[in-house]
Structure formats: structure tokens, C-alpha cells
Amino acid sequence: MRIGIIGAGKVGTTLAKYVKDRGACVAGFYSRTESGGRESAEFTGTEYFKTLDSLMDASDTLFITVTDGEIVKVWDCIAKKNVRGKVICHFSGSLSSDIFSNWEETGAYVCSIHPIYAFSNKFTAYQNLTGAAFAVEGCRTALTRLQELFRLLPNRIVEISTAEKVKYHAAASIASNQVVGLIFMAVELMKEAGISEMSAYELLKPLVENNVRSIFETAERQEHASCTGEKPEYRGCAQALTGPIERNDTETVRKHLEHMDRPQWESAYRAVGTVVTELAQKKHPKRSYETMKEILGHE
After folding, report:
1. Integer distance in angstroms from the first to the last C-alpha of the chain?
2. Could you give the dihedral angle defined by the CA atoms of residues 72, 74, 78 and 79, in that order, rounded to the nearest 10 degrees?
3. Cα(217)–Cα(132) distance, rounded to whole angstroms?
4. Rounded to an integer, what distance in angstroms lies between the CA atom of residue 172 and that of residue 236?
5. pTM
6. CA 188 – CA 194 distance, rounded (Å)
7. Which of 87, 90, 141, 225 might form a disulfide with 61, Cβ 3.0–4.6 angstroms?
8. From first to last of its 299 residues, what are the pLDDT tens digits of the chain?
9. SS3 of 98, please?
10. Quick one: 167 exposed, middle or buried, by C-beta within 10 A (0-12, 13-18, 19+)?
11. How far apart (Å, rounded) are the C-alpha atoms in residues 53 and 72?
12. What is the number of other CB atoms lying within 10 angstroms of the CB of residue 245?
């Protein structure tokens, strides 16, 4: 396998450095911005190709690491060339391999790989990529061919449904970006209560960290699992849940809603609270949460 990379931004540069350091053969980069392409090639110890054709001639596998909006444009361009027998892969989280229209007619094999990871810096992000999982989908031949690469990497490879990839990406966005939004909301409410921003972060830090840690703790059967070879189970969200909704403390939730001065935040509290109520019901199946549901659903 000889990998050519189209796009010399954070993702392309990080991946080139990461897989090359682990023994993969990376031919080099093609980029519309020559200075950026040469910079990435020098950093990764690979070649900069002045033309897309020359990169394609030197590669049997093409990584398209441009922005989501440019992937179709790149595909439309290379699909007109000789891509027969090549593996074509993009790295978008929200787009599936379906974006490669009429790929069967070209003779190429298409797929997508999405590292569940924040590519923060072009020259340092590769250092912490080891712990990230890679979500993959696409045609069977492409994924089979990529096993040669995957065997070199310590990362967990998870195959997902092409048809449902948007749900996968929504899940990742909720767990990452939207959790950040909720923490911001909590900080702002603390500030409205007269607490400084720094103190708000200090107060919330152990609460957030302990909750997340509790969700991802392995269950008590871990010791048994290690003996039998089974994978340990995580404690999960339902068992980690605490707070007024879980306790069915309807009066406290009413007071919270009465003091939500911003309509958007009240809506967010109600929406997330409704999900939390469903989770609480799962934890306490014999407990009635009907009143709580009515409070959260009534605006």
C-alpha cells in the first residue's frame, strides 16, 4: 500500500506523520497551496507533488483530507482520471462513502475513516492519536485492503453503517460539543448567582469529572470478566445518574425552571431534562415519573 494525501491541513498532516511513524508507506501530498503542501511533506519526510496526476501515479490509496465542502469537488476531479483499482478514502465525520457518486463505474473502491479525535494542531496532534478509535465504513473491498494499514496501528477500528453514519456523527457531536455548551450554561448560571467565572469552573470541575468517570467505570463483574476473557461492561449512564430528576424531586425542578431567565436555556433544560427523566425511569422502573414529565413538558 502506498498512500497519497490530497490536502495538507491538520488532518492530512497528522495522519501522514502518524501512520508513517508506524511503518506505513506514505508517498506524499498534493495541495492547492504549494507552501502548505511542501511544509507538510517536509514535516512528515515525504514528497510534495506539484500535480494531482503525479500524486495519483505514485499511489494506490488516496486519502482525501480536505474540508467536507470540498470532498465532492475533489472526487469529481479524480473520478475523471484513472482510479481503477485504487482505494479512495475521505475523513469526514458527517459524510459517508455515499458521497463518492457512481464509484462502481470508475473501478475504484471507496470508504471513509473518521478518527474520533480533535485535530488541534498540525504538527503536534499526531502525538496523542494513539488512544482514538477510528470509525470506518464503505465498500468491503476498500475496508479489506485497508486492513494492511489497520494492522500497523494500535487504534481500535469500529465498522459502522453507511446508511446511519449521520447518527454516529450526531452522537459524537452531542458527547463533545453539546456537553461543552451545557457546561457553559452552568458556568453562566453560577455567574448570575454571584460566583466569579474562575470559581464557577473550580466548583464544577470535580462534579463534571466525577460524573464522567462514574459513567465509564467498569462494572463489578470486571474481575470475573478478566478471568473468563470477556470484555468488562461500563457502569453506564443510568447507574451513574444522580440529582433532582433522578430523585423525582419535582419541587426543585419547578424552582429551576422558574429561575431560568433566558428562553433558550429554559428550553434546553426541559429538553435535556426529558431525556434524563427517561434515563431515571430506566434506573427505577417501578417509580412513577409522570408528574416530572408533565413539568418538563409544559411550557
Report:
1. 58
2. 0
3. 18
4. 16
5. 0.81
6. 10
7. 87
8. 999 999 999 999 999 999 999 999 999 999 999 999 999 999 999 999 999 999 999 999 999 999 999 999 999 999 999 999 999 999 999 999 999 999 999 999 999 999 998 888 999 999 999 999 999 999 999 999 999 999 999 999 999 999 999 999 999 899 989 999 999 999 999 999 999 999 999 999 999 999 999 999 986 545 555 555 666 789 999 999 999 999 999 999 999 999 998 999 999 999 999 999 999 999 999 999 999 999 999 76
9. helix
10. exposed
11. 18
12. 25
Phi, psi angle pair for 225, to nearest 5°: -65, -40
Look-up: residue for cell 456537553? 179
Residue 80 corresponds to which cell in the numbers above?
475523471
| Whether the Cβ atoms of residue 235 and residue 217 lie closer than 8 Å to each other | yes
Angstrom distance (rounded) from CA 174 to CA 7: 27
Q: Which three cell numbers stand for residue 263?
A: 428562553
Closest by Cα among 156, 147, 69 to 111? 147
Burial of 4 (0-12, 13-18, 19+ CB in 10 A): buried
Which three cell numbers, joined as nine digits, stand for 11?
Answer: 488532518
* CA distance linking residue 57 with residue 245, whole number of Å: 61
Decide: helix, strand or coil at residue 37: helix
Count how many residues are written for the chain. Answer: 299
| pLDDT at site 229 | 60
Rounded alpha-carbon distances, angstroms, from residue 142 to 6, 87, 108, 255: 18, 6, 9, 55
Strand 25-30 relative to strand 2-6, pairing? parallel
Amino acid residing at 200: A
